Prior knowledge:
It is a single chain. This protein is mainly α. The protein has one domain (9-82). Helix content is 27%, strand content 0%. It is built from three helices and no strands. It has helices at residues 52-55, 61-64, 68-82.
Amino acid sequence: MNCRPGCGACCIAPSINTPMPGMPAGKPAGVRCLHLDEANLCLLFGTQERPAFCAGFSASSDICGDSREDAIRIIGWLEESTAC
């Protein structure tokens, strides 16, 4: 599955626990990443500053569902159910 243009759910719903430019403590779940542009594209894509968590994410129908709303809901549920 290819990412949906303009989705950005993977840059909003999950927490990122590693530092990145402008976010030295990472990013809490449900918070929009500072590096997500107006078109919901990652400004760190393809750079060394991009967190390994982000680079390892692959869009799939079981994670992303049928819409952006599904993706935010599913990723949010996964985040909540795996939180320590």
